[in-house]
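Inputs:
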Amino acid sequence: MREAVRFCGRDLVDVYISEDAAARHPDLVKQAKKATHWVHPMTDEVARAISPDCQGVAAVVKDFRTDGLPKVDWDFVVIMTQTQDPGNAGNIIRAADAAGADAVIACSGTVDVSSPKVVRASAGSVFHLPSITNVGFEEVAEWAKARGMTLVAADGGGSVDLFDAEDGMESLDLAAPIAWAFGNEAHGFDQIDTSGFDHSVSIPLAGHAESLNVSAAAAVCLFATARSRRRMGAWDKAKTD
Amino acid sequence: MREAVRFCGRDLVDVYISEDAAARHPDLVKQAKKATHWVHPMTDEVARAISPDCQGVAAVVKDFRTDGLPKVDWDFVVIMTQTQDPGNAGNIIRAADAAGADAVIACSGTVDVSSPKVVRASAGSVFHLPSITNVGFEEVAEWAKARGMTLVAADGGGSVDLFDAEDGMESLDLAAPIAWAFGNEAHGFDQIDTSGFDHSVSIPLAGHAESLNVSAAAAVCLFATARSRRRMGAWDKAKTD
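Outputs:
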């Protein structure tokens, strides 16, 4: 909830805070009061009634999802084509945030990114970057290309070797404007039209594992881009400034 | 279960297989019969009674965990010091396997790696590489160093920048014999003696996320080592040969 209070700004409607939590986090109370008139004290009983693992702060925020694709200049977006598991979706959003992505796009067929399990697994990252919803993959593919992004599928059978791409030995430039797409946990991209992908990238696997979990694969791919971007000086300094 | 049948060999005790599954996977039946005399037909009702999401094959295997540290020449091991969430533990084991690690060490205080949730999250990787259990972290640290491995903590506050290490700009050589340690989900390495670490490595984060999920962080770190090892020619070819 701390992340909601810090990042939702005007989208914060109400904040409920227990006496204990208010004493422990005076900074949070100050931030909440700056953002909304509606900061309410609550008892521990109320906190527990709101959620069994409420840690003394609860907030009502306006829906953080954005319907449809905006006309903005983004150069690093993450597309979930059909992610079904809320833990995976939350972890992909968290990795996208940490790698410096501009936005996450949850195509129709992806789990609801505002569901409690996704929000929790994202560790607050759903409040840090835009979540675009209610769009089909083909529409997203057209949009990404019209904006000059290379559309890249992370796919175990992909012909581009991620390590080679990181070493500049493939035609894919990981530091250039990029839209990374991740598929369904079980059937990958089997149920979507993949003809729009510019590149299909596989992570080289040693050992005997046939694949990585989709959120682990996303972390590896997104940090390959993050590393390449930092090398080229295109690096979100929000964290380090 | 396919992975248990393929990789457990003599440790396979019984295999139960439904008529449907036997018809769909004749190769699996053949492999099972080679490994054990005890391949039993079962009905779909029995399969469902064994586990609600049993897909027609069930196996009894000897305990795959190894107690205590063996005297072997390994040069890439993964240490879970206190991983608590079974999904994270399974995903770390899966990433370790995929990155070509020789073994996973689950220190005392880590979730039981033979629990169903860990086995499932590992997608069979628990059967691919040794899981060392029943050892304390300090013992593991001594053992790793005595075997010439560099002991490295993955830690958000670490002073070694992972990207710089990958680019050869740090004193840490990711391709040299290495033991990667990952901490607890909530308190990292707060509850263990960290004086034994040779390096403490952080993944550079852009955006606003304060950290990555521990299994995502493990994937990023282990594949940094995998990439460096492949560059140096130290790469497990099990997969590609």
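Remarks. Chain A touches chain B through 48 residues (CB under 8 Å). Residues 78 and 104 of chain A are 5 Å apart (CA to CA).
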